[in-house]
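Continuing from yesterday's entry. The apo prediction looked reasonable, so today I'm repeating it with zinc ion included to see how the binding region is handled. Same sequence as before; SMILES copied from the compound registry.
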Amino acid sequence: MKQAALVCLLLLVVFGVQPANAAAWRSRVWPETPEGITKPHADVTEPDPDPDVPLALQGWIIVLDPGHGGSDPGAVNSRLDLQEKNINLAVAGFLKGMLQDLGANVKMTRTADEELSIAERRNYSNAQNAHRFLSLHVNSAGNTAAWGIETWVDTDANQIWKDYAQTLHNYTVAKAKTYESDTPDRKLRYSGFTPPWDGGKKIGVIRYDSINAPAALIEMGFISNDAEANRLARSDYQKLLAEGMAEGFVEHAKQYKKEDGVIKR
Ligand SMILES: [Zn+2]
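Holo prediction written out below.
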Protein backbone atom coordinates (compact mmCIF):
# COMPACT_ATOMS: atom_id res chain seq x y z
CA MET A 1 0.00 0.00 0.00
CA LYS A 2 2.77 2.37 0.98
CA GLN A 3 4.56 1.45 -2.23
CA ALA A 4 1.47 2.19 -4.37
CA ALA A 5 1.15 5.59 -2.78
CA LEU A 6 4.79 6.27 -3.49
CA VAL A 7 4.34 5.30 -7.14
CA CYS A 8 1.29 7.57 -7.30
CA LEU A 9 3.30 10.44 -5.86
CA LEU A 10 6.11 9.73 -8.28
CA LEU A 11 3.71 9.74 -11.23
CA LEU A 12 2.27 13.04 -10.01
CA VAL A 13 5.74 14.53 -9.81
CA VAL A 14 6.78 13.23 -13.21
CA PHE A 15 3.59 14.01 -15.13
CA GLY A 16 1.69 16.41 -12.90
CA VAL A 17 4.15 19.27 -13.07
CA GLN A 18 4.74 19.07 -16.80
CA PRO A 19 1.78 21.18 -17.99
CA ALA A 20 2.75 24.00 -15.62
CA ASN A 21 6.31 23.98 -16.93
CA ALA A 22 5.10 23.86 -20.51
CA ALA A 23 2.80 26.84 -19.90
CA ALA A 24 5.66 28.82 -18.40
CA TRP A 25 7.82 27.94 -21.39
CA ARG A 26 5.13 28.97 -23.84
CA SER A 27 4.67 32.38 -22.25
CA ARG A 28 8.39 33.05 -22.05
CA VAL A 29 9.61 36.23 -23.75
CA TRP A 30 12.78 36.21 -25.80
CA PRO A 31 14.01 39.78 -25.92
CA GLU A 32 16.96 38.86 -28.12
CA THR A 33 17.21 37.04 -31.41
CA PRO A 34 16.98 33.34 -30.55
CA GLU A 35 19.96 31.13 -31.24
CA GLY A 36 20.10 28.95 -34.29
CA ILE A 37 18.58 31.33 -36.82
CA THR A 38 21.44 30.91 -39.28
CA LYS A 39 20.81 27.16 -39.44
CA PRO A 40 17.11 26.70 -38.73
CA HIS A 41 17.13 23.23 -40.26
CA ALA A 42 20.36 22.01 -38.75
CA ASP A 43 18.64 19.31 -36.70
CA VAL A 44 16.39 18.09 -39.50
CA THR A 45 17.55 15.44 -41.95
CA GLU A 46 15.67 15.97 -45.17
CA PRO A 47 15.69 13.53 -48.08
CA ASP A 48 17.69 14.60 -51.11
CA PRO A 49 15.36 16.09 -53.72
CA ASP A 50 14.69 14.09 -56.87
CA PRO A 51 17.21 15.50 -59.39
CA ASP A 52 14.66 15.15 -62.21
CA VAL A 53 12.09 17.37 -60.50
CA PRO A 54 13.11 21.04 -60.42
CA LEU A 55 12.59 22.74 -57.08
CA ALA A 56 9.81 25.33 -56.91
CA LEU A 57 12.21 28.28 -56.73
CA GLN A 58 15.13 26.86 -58.69
CA GLY A 59 17.17 29.72 -60.16
CA TRP A 60 15.25 32.49 -58.41
CA ILE A 61 17.44 35.22 -56.90
CA ILE A 62 15.58 36.54 -53.87
CA VAL A 63 16.82 39.46 -51.77
CA LEU A 64 15.57 39.60 -48.19
CA ASP A 65 15.83 42.92 -46.41
CA PRO A 66 15.57 42.80 -42.61
CA GLY A 67 14.54 46.37 -41.81
CA HIS A 68 16.60 48.73 -39.62
CA GLY A 69 19.74 47.59 -37.73
CA GLY A 70 22.73 49.01 -35.88
CA SER A 71 21.95 52.30 -34.18
CA ASP A 72 18.46 52.24 -35.76
CA PRO A 73 16.36 49.81 -33.68
CA GLY A 74 13.18 50.45 -35.67
CA ALA A 75 10.03 50.33 -33.57
CA VAL A 76 10.52 49.37 -29.93
CA ASN A 77 8.49 48.09 -27.01
CA SER A 78 10.25 49.33 -23.88
CA ARG A 79 7.83 47.49 -21.57
CA LEU A 80 9.02 44.17 -23.02
CA ASP A 81 12.51 45.35 -23.99
CA LEU A 82 11.94 44.38 -27.63
CA GLN A 83 13.40 46.00 -30.73
CA GLU A 84 12.04 45.62 -34.24
CA LYS A 85 15.46 45.18 -35.88
CA ASN A 86 16.05 41.86 -34.06
CA ILE A 87 12.66 40.40 -34.99
CA ASN A 88 13.13 41.37 -38.65
CA LEU A 89 16.53 39.66 -38.75
CA ALA A 90 15.31 36.52 -37.00
CA VAL A 91 12.38 35.98 -39.39
CA ALA A 92 14.65 36.70 -42.38
CA GLY A 93 17.08 34.04 -41.13
CA PHE A 94 14.35 31.41 -40.98
CA LEU A 95 12.95 32.45 -44.37
CA LYS A 96 16.37 32.31 -45.98
CA GLY A 97 16.79 28.65 -45.02
CA MET A 98 13.32 27.74 -46.25
CA LEU A 99 13.75 29.49 -49.61
CA GLN A 100 17.16 27.86 -50.10
CA ASP A 101 15.55 24.47 -49.50
CA LEU A 102 13.16 25.38 -52.34
CA GLY A 103 16.11 26.03 -54.66
CA ALA A 104 16.34 29.82 -54.42
CA ASN A 105 19.57 31.79 -54.35
CA VAL A 106 18.88 33.98 -51.32
CA LYS A 107 20.76 37.20 -50.57
CA MET A 108 20.36 39.34 -47.47
CA THR A 109 20.89 43.09 -47.30
CA ARG A 110 22.20 42.46 -43.78
CA THR A 111 22.97 39.29 -41.81
CA ALA A 112 24.02 41.06 -38.60
CA ASP A 113 23.08 44.04 -36.47
CA GLU A 114 24.35 46.70 -38.87
CA GLU A 115 23.03 49.94 -40.26
CA LEU A 116 22.21 50.40 -43.94
CA SER A 117 20.59 53.31 -45.77
CA ILE A 118 17.42 52.82 -47.79
CA ALA A 119 19.35 53.50 -51.02
CA GLU A 120 22.00 50.92 -50.06
CA ARG A 121 19.28 48.28 -49.67
CA ARG A 122 17.78 49.05 -53.10
CA ASN A 123 21.19 49.28 -54.77
CA TYR A 124 22.21 45.94 -53.26
CA SER A 125 19.11 44.27 -54.71
CA ASN A 126 19.73 45.80 -58.14
CA ALA A 127 23.41 44.80 -58.07
CA GLN A 128 22.42 41.18 -57.29
CA ASN A 129 20.05 41.15 -60.30
CA ALA A 130 17.32 40.04 -57.93
CA HIS A 131 14.11 38.54 -59.24
CA ARG A 132 12.18 39.48 -56.11
CA PHE A 133 12.79 41.76 -53.12
CA LEU A 134 11.13 41.43 -49.73
CA SER A 135 11.56 43.87 -46.86
CA LEU A 136 10.59 42.66 -43.38
CA HIS A 137 9.29 45.06 -40.76
CA VAL A 138 7.26 45.27 -37.57
CA ASN A 139 4.62 47.94 -37.08
CA SER A 140 3.96 50.33 -34.22
CA ALA A 141 1.02 52.53 -33.27
CA GLY A 142 0.07 54.95 -30.50
CA ASN A 143 -3.03 52.83 -29.97
CA THR A 144 -1.61 49.79 -28.16
CA ALA A 145 -4.71 47.77 -29.10
CA ALA A 146 -3.82 47.88 -32.82
CA TRP A 147 -2.53 44.55 -34.19
CA GLY A 148 -2.41 42.44 -37.32
CA ILE A 149 -0.49 42.07 -40.56
CA GLU A 150 -0.34 44.45 -43.53
CA THR A 151 1.74 44.41 -46.70
CA TRP A 152 2.87 47.34 -48.83
CA VAL A 153 3.54 47.72 -52.55
CA ASP A 154 4.17 50.86 -54.62
CA THR A 155 0.87 52.20 -55.96
CA ASP A 156 2.52 52.95 -59.34
CA ALA A 157 3.93 49.41 -59.73
CA ASN A 158 2.84 47.01 -62.47
CA GLN A 159 0.29 44.28 -61.79
CA ILE A 160 2.95 41.58 -61.25
CA TRP A 161 4.41 43.51 -58.32
CA LYS A 162 0.93 43.88 -56.83
CA ASP A 163 0.09 40.21 -57.36
CA TYR A 164 3.42 39.24 -55.75
CA ALA A 165 2.73 41.40 -52.69
CA GLN A 166 -0.87 40.18 -52.42
CA THR A 167 0.10 36.50 -52.61
CA LEU A 168 2.83 36.81 -49.98
CA HIS A 169 0.41 38.76 -47.80
CA ASN A 170 -2.38 36.17 -48.09
CA TYR A 171 -0.17 33.23 -47.18
CA THR A 172 1.51 35.07 -44.30
CA VAL A 173 -1.84 36.07 -42.79
CA ALA A 174 -3.21 32.54 -43.24
CA LYS A 175 -0.22 31.07 -41.38
CA ALA A 176 -0.45 33.64 -38.58
CA LYS A 177 -4.11 32.70 -38.13
CA THR A 178 -3.15 29.07 -37.49
CA TYR A 179 -1.35 30.38 -34.38
CA GLU A 180 -3.74 33.17 -33.37
CA SER A 181 -7.00 32.83 -35.26
CA ASP A 182 -8.16 36.40 -34.55
CA THR A 183 -5.07 37.99 -36.17
CA PRO A 184 -6.48 40.91 -38.23
CA ASP A 185 -5.88 40.91 -41.98
CA ARG A 186 -4.94 44.57 -42.48
CA LYS A 187 -4.83 44.04 -46.25
CA LEU A 188 -2.51 45.02 -49.08
CA ARG A 189 -1.69 48.73 -48.93
CA TYR A 190 -0.48 51.03 -51.65
CA SER A 191 2.61 53.09 -50.86
CA GLY A 192 2.15 56.58 -52.29
CA PHE A 193 -1.59 56.32 -52.10
CA THR A 194 -2.94 54.63 -48.97
CA PRO A 195 -3.29 56.95 -45.96
CA PRO A 196 -2.04 57.33 -43.30
CA TRP A 197 1.49 56.74 -44.62
CA ASP A 198 2.70 60.35 -44.28
CA GLY A 199 -0.23 61.63 -46.29
CA GLY A 200 0.74 59.68 -49.39
CA LYS A 201 4.55 59.76 -49.21
CA LYS A 202 6.15 56.62 -50.64
CA ILE A 203 8.05 53.98 -48.69
CA GLY A 204 11.58 54.42 -50.07
CA VAL A 205 12.82 50.84 -50.00
CA ILE A 206 10.10 49.50 -52.34
CA ARG A 207 9.92 52.42 -54.81
CA TYR A 208 8.92 51.27 -58.31
CA ASP A 209 11.14 53.92 -59.89
CA SER A 210 14.28 52.89 -57.98
CA ILE A 211 14.35 49.13 -57.42
CA ASN A 212 14.28 46.71 -60.35
CA ALA A 213 12.77 43.58 -58.82
CA PRO A 214 9.12 43.30 -57.79
CA ALA A 215 9.27 44.57 -54.21
CA ALA A 216 7.00 44.16 -51.20
CA LEU A 217 7.23 45.15 -47.56
CA ILE A 218 5.50 43.08 -44.90
CA GLU A 219 4.61 44.62 -41.53
CA MET A 220 4.47 41.35 -39.56
CA GLY A 221 2.56 42.70 -36.58
CA PHE A 222 2.58 45.49 -33.99
CA ILE A 223 5.40 45.69 -31.47
CA SER A 224 3.30 48.28 -29.61
CA ASN A 225 0.70 45.60 -28.83
CA ASP A 226 2.12 43.55 -25.94
CA ALA A 227 0.38 40.29 -26.86
CA GLU A 228 1.45 40.45 -30.49
CA ALA A 229 4.95 41.64 -29.54
CA ASN A 230 5.32 38.59 -27.30
CA ARG A 231 4.40 36.33 -30.22
CA LEU A 232 6.78 38.15 -32.57
CA ALA A 233 9.64 37.55 -30.11
CA ARG A 234 9.07 33.78 -30.11
CA SER A 235 11.10 31.68 -32.53
CA ASP A 236 8.20 29.28 -33.19
CA TYR A 237 6.00 32.18 -34.33
CA GLN A 238 8.87 33.70 -36.33
CA LYS A 239 9.29 30.34 -38.10
CA LEU A 240 5.57 30.17 -38.80
CA LEU A 241 5.53 33.63 -40.40
CA ALA A 242 8.53 32.63 -42.50
CA GLU A 243 6.71 29.45 -43.57
CA GLY A 244 3.74 31.54 -44.70
CA MET A 245 6.00 33.76 -46.77
CA ALA A 246 7.81 30.74 -48.27
CA GLU A 247 4.46 29.24 -49.27
CA GLY A 248 3.55 32.59 -50.80
CA PHE A 249 6.73 32.50 -52.90
CA VAL A 250 5.89 28.98 -54.11
CA GLU A 251 2.35 30.02 -55.07
CA HIS A 252 3.66 33.15 -56.82
CA ALA A 253 6.14 31.00 -58.76
CA LYS A 254 3.22 28.92 -60.05
CA GLN A 255 1.70 32.08 -61.54
CA TYR A 256 4.79 33.87 -62.84
CA LYS A 257 8.28 33.21 -64.13
CA LYS A 258 11.17 34.69 -62.18
CA GLU A 259 11.89 37.31 -64.89
CA ASP A 260 8.29 38.54 -64.93
CA GLY A 261 7.84 42.02 -63.55
CA VAL A 262 11.56 42.77 -63.31
CA ILE A 263 12.20 46.31 -64.64
CA LYS A 264 15.06 46.74 -67.10
CA ARG A 265 16.59 50.20 -66.77
ZN1 LIG B 1 10.34 49.11 -39.69
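Comparison notes:
- Helices lie at 2-16, 18-26, 84-101, 118-127, 159-179, 226-232, 235-255.
- The beta strands are 61-66, 76-77, 82-83, 105-108, 132-139, 149-154, 185-191, 215-222.
Will overlay with the apo model tomorrow.
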